Amino acid sequence: MVPSAWKSETINKTEKGTQGVDCKFTNPKVKGMKAFVIALGRAGEDAKAFKITDVEGTFASFAGADYDIQDALTTADEVTTKTRDGENGDVFFEYDIDSPINHYQASISTKRGKIFALFIKTPGAAYNANKELTNTMLKSFTTL
């Protein structure tokens, strides 16, 4: 679920090919607030098990799509994780990175050897005013 007032951004070849960005939306009312979906076809690549519960390792895989992710992790006051059961029996790992600079929320799942993730980035100062919206967006994320 993305609010109708949000603007869809065109994904370029680099974002799609090397960063795995599938779609991206920005909130025109809050500078720097965006949501993007990443699809990576490498769960278990190179005989290395992908551990979705490993926060550092998981986010290192996605840092190329948004370089501020690593900064948020290093400046975070708190990082919380929980799981959510999806409609089709999929399990979604949800992360909340509470950084004063940029607050990130993510919902990540694996399916058929691929990793699917929704990231919502909100400037730290705007997070509390948008928390209900971002929580609704996060819970709406599912795989087909």
TrEMBL record:
It comes from the Eukaryota. This is PsbP C-terminal domain-containing protein.
